[in-house]
Structure formats: C-alpha cells, structure tokens
Design a protein that fits this description.
Layout (H helix, E strand, L loop, with lengths): L1 E4 L9 E7 L2 E7 L7 H10 L8 H16 L4 H5 L4 H18 L12 H17 L3 H7 L5 H22 L1
Antiparallel strand pairs: 1-2, 2-3
Length: 169
C-alpha cells in the first residue's frame, strides 16, 4: 500500500506520500497533511487516473460494503433490482466481482482485468449511487459536487441572455 512520512508542525514543512506501484516507488509531496480516513483513501484510489486495475476490485467492494451494507443496511439484491436488462446483469456481475476480489488470492492465478472492463464497472458503480438516491454522496467523494453546479449556472446565464435577446429583438 503506501507509507506516510510527515514533518507535521514544522513551519514551511512539506508532507510526503510514498506510493508503491508495480515494482517501483515514488514520493509525492503534499503542502497539506495527506492523512485522511481509510474511507477517503478508498475514494481517492477510485479518483486516480493511474489506479491499479487489479486492486480496484477490492476498493469498490469496500466502498459499497461500507456505504450501503454497514451504514445503509442495504441488500445487494435490492440495489441490483434498481437496474433492468444489461445494466442489471452488469450490476450483479459487479457485486460478484467485488466479492471475489475481497476473498481471492491473486498469487496463484493470473487475472486479466483490462481498462474497458474496469470502466464499465465504474460506470455501474456510479449508477448504483444515482439509482439509489445517493448521487450527492458520490459527487462529494469524487470531488464533482461543485463542478456540475458551475456548469448549470453557466447554462442558466446563457439561457437568460438568450431570452433577454429575444425580448429586445
């Protein structure tokens, strides 16, 4: 996983995060303290563009279990019943995939998880939050909460300007 080296409390100090991937490590400097809750770290991994296709299984499982099962008391069948057709099949597959990801030793078997497969599961992962009425939580954790608001405000201003132009014409 990762280690944290911190010089907390020293004026002008920079905290460092050591990130291990594949067979190498890299140091990332942070101007603020990178220590956060384990739940936030899970979401941070989902937000990363260079996330590991192999470990994303366990990350999604832990988020879904924490948010929907432990905190929300939801049943995975109830969640999948929010979908129909192909999406329902993918949702069931996601929960099956996620459960396998948490209880499977990858040392004994090569598992190929390509970018397209991960992307389709991430789309259903988001749709789970949308369809269950928890999109605000998803947006907050993905840091999307304010980006959509500014886009809506810009479109509203455009529409108001168009309407005023039509009145004066």
């Amino acid at each position: 996983m990762a280690s944290i080296l911190a010089l907390n409390g020293c004026p002008g100090s920079v905290d460092h995060y050591i990130r291990k991937s594949h067979h190498s490590s890299r140091v990332e400097a942070h101007t603020s303290n990178p220590i956060v809750t384990s739940y936030e770290l899970l979401w941070a991994e989902v937000r990363r563009a260079d996330r590991s296709n192999l470990s994303i299984q366990n990350t999604l499982r832990r988020i879904l279990e924490n948010y929907f099962k432990i905190l929300g008391g939801s049943d995975t069948d109830d969640i999948c019943n929010l979908f129909e057709g192909r999406e329902k099949v993918i949702c069931r597959s996601l929960f099956s995939w996620v459960n396998d990801g948490s209880h499977f030793a990858h040392d004994d078997l090569y598992v190929a998880v390509d970018d397209a497969m991960v992307e389709s599961y991430l789309n259903i992962f988001k749709a789970i939050f949308v369809k269950s009425g928890h999109l605000a939580h998803y947006k907050m954790m993905m840091r999307e909460a304010y980006s959509d608001d500014s886009e809506i405000a810009a479109k509203t201003q455009e529409q108001q300007a168009d309407a005023q132009g039509a009145v004066h014409a």
